[in-house]
Amino acid sequence: MLSRFTPRAGAFRETIPPDIQERLLDNAWCSHCSGMTTITDYSGTIENGDLILDGFCILCGNAVTRLIESEE
Asked: What DSSP character marks residue 17?
């Protein structure tokens, strides 16, 4: 799996326990499959203090996005 993070996004991700990181990756909505999926080949950026993961559905390859809100 390929993953790329901006420095701020990488720092944000490091604050999340590894088991929670995995659960978040397995909890992305795919509009093509109309259901929950695992996000793969993702990149991470920060927008308005929140972590945005942009990647692809592991089942169909459709683009998916996962928002992880900050506590700020």
From this structure: -
Q: What average pLDDT does range 2-8 have in this prediction? A: 82
Phi–psi pair at 64, nearest 5 degrees: -135, 155
Q: Name the nearest CA neighbour of 32 among 53, 1, 61.
A: 61
Mean pLDDT across 54-71:
95
Which pLDDT score is estimated for 3?
Answer: 60
- Closest CA relative to residue 33, chosen from 52, 53, 56: 56
Domain segments of the chain as ranges: 4-68
DSSP code per residue over 36-60: EE-EEEEEEEEETTEEEEEEEETTT
